[in-house]
Amino acid sequence: MTQPTIGFIGLGIMGKPMAKNLLKAGFPLVVLNRSRGPVDELVALGATAGTSPRDVASRSEIVITMLPDSPDVESVVLGTDGVAQGIKSGSFWIDMSTIAPATTRAIAAELAKKGVTSLDAPVSGGEKGAIDGALSIMIGGPQEAFDRAQPVFQAMGKNIVRIGETGAGQVAKACNQIVVGVTIEAVAEAFALARASGVDPAAVRTALLGGFAQSKILDVHGQRMLDHNFQPGFKSKLHRKDMNIATSSAEERGIEIPAAGLVKDRFDALIARGEGELDHSALAALYEKTAAAAK
Amino acid sequence: MTQPTIGFIGLGIMGKPMAKNLLKAGFPLVVLNRSRGPVDELVALGATAGTSPRDVASRSEIVITMLPDSPDVESVVLGTDGVAQGIKSGSFWIDMSTIAPATTRAIAAELAKKGVTSLDAPVSGGEKGAIDGALSIMIGGPQEAFDRAQPVFQAMGKNIVRIGETGAGQVAKACNQIVVGVTIEAVAEAFALARASGVDPAAVRTALLGGFAQSKILDVHGQRMLDHNFQPGFKSKLHRKDMNIATSSAEERGIEIPAAGLVKDRFDALIARGEGELDHSALAALYEKTAAAAK
């Protein structure tokens, strides 16, 4: 059985290793990226270079986008020479970017008019997960499309869950970013209290990992905080963007999510200090300065 | 070798099973409790009933207190007919209650004048951990005392960590309660956003457990929220008390811990609704009502 051709748009920190894993799994690939370097790298591995989103879409049965933000996805799909202008009826559009659920639904509605099925499939697991083909993938869209796209997802991820209908994947990702962001803040505050009380935060981390306070964040990001290792990882400015998606979505739905709002503000404070490029665990750095100032 | 006699004061939800595990481990036990029922239960298993904290202390080499709050511990140890009036020089006082680190340090200083060594050893793991002898125990106090008390701790817990000097166990417990409380809030907000967006929070929980958002809280308390099972467990009014210890300690040290403060306020809101007896995962119930009202 021939593998369907996949068009892959957006070869950034995440997109590039994801595209490589699709190549490894045997999918013919047409790739596109704003800068040329990653395209050449993929072409050397057997991919074909596209010339525009429209061109990529016209040569593929499945179009994957992996882009920074809602406006990027909107313009690449619906803009001039966009995916929508080239994509064939019966194709799939799989958006693996993290964007606003409302934007996902709007674009999917446009593409449905052209006989295109949309799946929103944002990921979690970072660059390492992307390289290892071990991403968590949260998927919204029709069950049948989810089933048919399984081999594509399995080439890139491990924990592949269909959450619900179109947009549900993005909602789950927003939930993920709330939990991750607020838990980072929780650990940062706990370590700040320990340090200010003259207690070793490393001993606190060890003790807490054995009980109800256990989390992957306490383990991995807690260790980053102890090491003061804020090399990304996942950049604070991107997490800030995701917290904004979460709080805006909550506002649209008429509910309040105050801890998420607080963490969004903490990211703003970090970015205002010029530290938006640091890993999101750098929320703890805000407290190190506070604690030092208090001495 | 003869086991030292342990005086155990406070046979509540946690204290009673902890005392039973000490009996099982072969320690002679003198017990005291405000209500008679648990005392009779322990006496039937081989313990001796004491008549006052002073009496218990005068008949023991180690005095353990497991009481609700800082004022309770202060009055039982330093009050009329208190532990301090009966305790022998060379004895240990082990406080396994969760109280303010400042109170711990003040009482330990008083007892030191009588030649008594203090260990603060608050626990985590809930009633189930107490019954199973599987508590996490966070300990502050001299290394030598920690080493000598090992058999006592091992009869009640599994993850036994010395955090630092006197008070450090209570600081670690405050950190634990910050992380647990704020993570519960994080999961509650994520589920609220999912529900308000028409997405199944159960699917969100499953997806998130496979990635960076993983935590014991998302697993255990997340399931409680889905089941609307708010039978304690750990009562909201007690967690509220612990959040107050955390924020007061932070204030004393001149630092801010805003997410912890926010969660303290959420517990206040729950208590104001008359739901302080519910499990701390009932923070999610505040959002269920909000979400329903928004529809």
Structure in words:
Two copies of one chain form a homodimer. Chain A is an alpha/beta fold and 295 residues long. Chain A has two domains: 6-166, Rossmann fold (3-Layer(aba) Sandwich); 172-294, N-(1-d-carboxylethyl)-l-norvaline Dehydrogenase, domain 2 (Orthogonal Bundle), CATH 1.10.1040. The first copy, chain A, has 15 helices and nine strands. Chain A has helices at residues 15-24, 37-44, 53-58, 70-78, 83-86, 101-112, 126-132, 143-148, 150-154, 168-196, 201-209, 216-227, 236-252, 258-272, 283-294, and strands at residues 6-9, 29-32, 48-49, 62-65, 92-95, 117-120, 123-124, 135-140, 157-164. In chain A, strands 3-2-1-4-5-6 form a six-stranded parallel beta sheet, with helices on both faces. In chain A, helix 2 links the parallel strand 2 (29-32) and strand 3 (48-49). In chain A, helix 10 (168-196) packs across helix 14 (258-272). The termini of chain A are far apart. Residues 291-295 of chain A have low confidence and may be disordered. Chains A and B meet through strand 9, helix 10, helix 11, helix 12 and helix 13 of A and strand 9, helix 10, helix 11, helix 12 and helix 13 of B.
Keywords:
295 residues, 6-stranded parallel beta sheet, 3-stranded mixed beta sheet, N-(1-d-carboxylethyl)-l-norvaline Dehydrogenase, domain 2, 55% helix, disordered C terminus, 2 domains
Give the secondary structure arrangement, pairings included.
Two copies of one chain form a homodimer.
Chain A: E1 6-9, H1 15-24, E2 29-32, H2 37-44, E3 48-49, H3 53-58, E4 62-65, H4 70-78, H5 83-86, E5 92-95, H6 101-112, E6 117-120, E7 123-124, H7 126-132, E8 135-140, H8 143-148, H9 150-154, E9 157-164, H10 168-196, H11 201-209, H12 216-227, H13 236-252, H14 258-272, H15 283-294
Parallel strand pairs in A: 1-2, 1-4, 2-3, 4-5, 5-6, 8-9
Antiparallel strand pairs in A: 7-8
Helix pairs in contact in A: 1-7, 4-6, 10-12, 10-13, 10-14, 10-15, 11-12, 13-14
